[in-house]
Every structure is written in C-alpha cells, then in structure tokens.
Amino acid sequence: MIRDSVVYVNMDKIVSDELNYTLNFHKDEEDKKNDIDTSKEEGSKNTELKDNKNENLKSFVYIRPLQCDSDDTLVKLSKAKFCKETEIIKKGYDSIFLETKQTFRLSLNYMNYHPKYVLHFNKIMKTEPLYFSIICDPLQRAIRHFNHSNSFNHINNFDEYYYHFGDKKNVGWTGIRDVTNNYFCNYLGFEKEDDITEENINERFSFIMVCEKPEESYKKLEKCMGLSKISNLSLKKSDFKINNFTEINFKKNNALDYKLYELCCKMIISAPSE
Q: d(Cα 117, Cα 130) in Å, to the nearest integer?
C-alpha cells in the first residue's frame, strides 16, 4: 500500500548563498513553549543601547514562509537601497548563529518566528528589529509546497496525497518545519485560535503582506521601510485545480490558518494610506 511506503529525504543542509534561498532543515527544534516576550527581555540590554545610538535607524527581519513569494521579491528587496549590501543577512535558520556582531539591518531568507531566532536577531541587528511577513491562500501554498518538496509528489497528485495523508502531521515532507495543516500559524508562531487577533498580529509584526492583495501589500511595504517604486515585485500565483472534496477537507483541517489569512486580508485592506 502506498500509505505504508513513506519515503523520507535527508534535507539537513544549510544553504546561504546570496541568491539561493533554500530551506535549512536542522533537527534541533526548540520547545515552542518558550515565551517570545521573555526572549525579547533577555535581549533588551543590547537593544536599548542600540536604540539610544540609532534613534532614526530601523532594522527589519522578513519572516518568509515557504512558497509564498518568488525569489524575485528578495532580489529586488536586496537592491532597494534600504541599507548597505553588507548590512543584509541572507542566511536562514540556524546559520544566523554564525554571525555574532551587531552588523545587520535587513534579514532575507526563510525564517520562522521562534524565540531562539528572535533573541539572536536582537543581538546581531543594529537596532531592535521590526518583523514583517507574507501570507497567501493556505491551500494554494500547500499545493505549491507539495509540488516543491514532498516525497510523494512523484507518486500522487495533491488530491490523492491529501486523501491518504491529510490527517497526518508531516508525512512525506522533507523537513521538520514542514507540517501538513495550519502551516502559517505554526510558522508565524500562533499556537491556538485565541492567539489570532489583530492586536497580537500588530504586536508581533509591523505588517503582513497578502499575495492576493499585491497593491495594498507593497504600498504598506514601501511605507514601513521607506522605499519607493518597488510595487512591481512579483508574488507567487497558481492555477492549480483540485476537487471539491479535497478543498472542503483542507479548509476544515486548516481553520486556524484561514482565520489568520482572512484577518490579514482585512488588516492590509483597511491599513491607512500615506
């Protein structure tokens, strides 16, 4: 039976080349019960000193979920004159710990919102970093992700895969951070439904772009980062078609992600313009 033939791929490799934004799947995931606020307090000694010296200086960390934007977004952000090229860190996940000096103002790579990363960014960014992220229709992201890096994508289409394994946490995925359901909430650090509020999103992120709302998203990006003329950045689009049964089942299993997605859509539309 296919269901009993699980294939795993070893993806435990860090790739940090300038234009190669490949996921790094290390297996040392920290306990998610760590309090992010506690991490920020532990790093406050560094950030207070930096903020006093750089009152008008901003630093940003892009929490970039897999298969939302295109690499073109990162290339253009890198060239957008927000900061010097030497102030951009393009390493992801645990490879950021190779950096120990307060050097950076912009982080561009795959990274999830987790206390151990938040704490380290407080140490290596020139000022206490502001976080921004991106979200899209959860089902479309899941299909792209499946086609990109799932060991069953050469055996099943997404409908078949989800029928057999949609109730499993991460069967077929090639890394520990890849979960089948509620990927965005897991990646952006929202563990339960009560956490998904406009107040909590604003407390954690400066803004969250929405792929299906590109004009509003990039206006917000330009305003917050003080950039101009980057609204031609490309976001991922897909034309994948699935059956109704899969769609209904997926939405049922991903209620948290859809709540987060719909709230982010509402927030980006209602965001005040310049």
A: 13
Residue for token digits 């509402």?
Answer: 266
Q: Is 244 exposed, middle or buried (0-12, 13-18, 19+ CB in 10 A)?
A: exposed
Angle subtended at Cα 127 by Cα 37 and Cα 260, rounded to the nearest 5 degrees? 45
* Token pair recorded at residue 143: 């299909």
Q: What is the mean pLDDT of residues 204-221?
A: 91
137 burial via Cβ count (<10 Å: 0-12, 13-18, 19+): middle
Of 261, 240, 211, nearest to 148 (Cα)? 240
The residue type of 52 is N
The residues spanned by each domain of the chain are: 36-144+172-270
Q: How far is Cα 237 from Cα 145, in angstroms, rounded to an integer? A: 13
Range in 47-51, 108-112, 204-208 the model is least confident about? 47-51
Q: What is the C-alpha to C-alpha distance for residues 135 and 138, in angstroms, rounded to an integer? A: 8
- Stretch (H or E) spanning 106: strand 106-107
Distance in angstroms (rounded) separating the CA atoms of residues 38 and 60: 20
pTM over 0.90: no
- CA distances (Å), 148 to each of 5, 137, 145, in order? 20, 17, 5
What separation in angstroms does the CA of 90 have from each of 79, 99, 104, 253?
Answer: 13, 11, 10, 33
Give the pLDDT score at 8: 42
**Beta bridge pairs of residue 137:** none
β-sheet bridge partners, residue 132: 62, 207
pLDDT at 34: 46
Q: How far apart are CA 116 and CA 182, in angstroms?
A: 21
